[in-house]
Amino acid sequence: MKRVISSLLIATALVGSAIQPAAARDHHRHHDNTGRIIAGGVAAGVVGGLIGGAIANNGGPRYVDEPRYVQPAPRCWYEDRDVRNRYDGGYHAETVRVCE
């Protein structure tokens, strides 16, 4: 990315330096070409922006997630059940989590 930005800055500087001597040369003829120079600079900026944007958008591989099967979570609830008491052999009620 740094290479792209630096090359765009260098290209802009070169275009700007190429336009400036032409403006100085035409100044002796007393023609007002300032509008043409500004239009050329704007056009160069737009073209440079389009090229830079195209280069910047082409960044690296793109990964696509494949659809995969996700097992649904089990349904769970709480029930009161009779549980065998381990000390005296009897039963008592206890809340137990039950899942399908």
UniProtKB/TrEMBL annotation:
Lineage of origin: Bacteria, Pseudomonadati, Pseudomonadota, Alphaproteobacteria, Hyphomicrobiales
Keywords, in A-Z order: Plasmid, Signal
Signal peptide start-end: 1-24
Name this polypeptide is given: Transmembrane protein
Domain of life: Bacteria
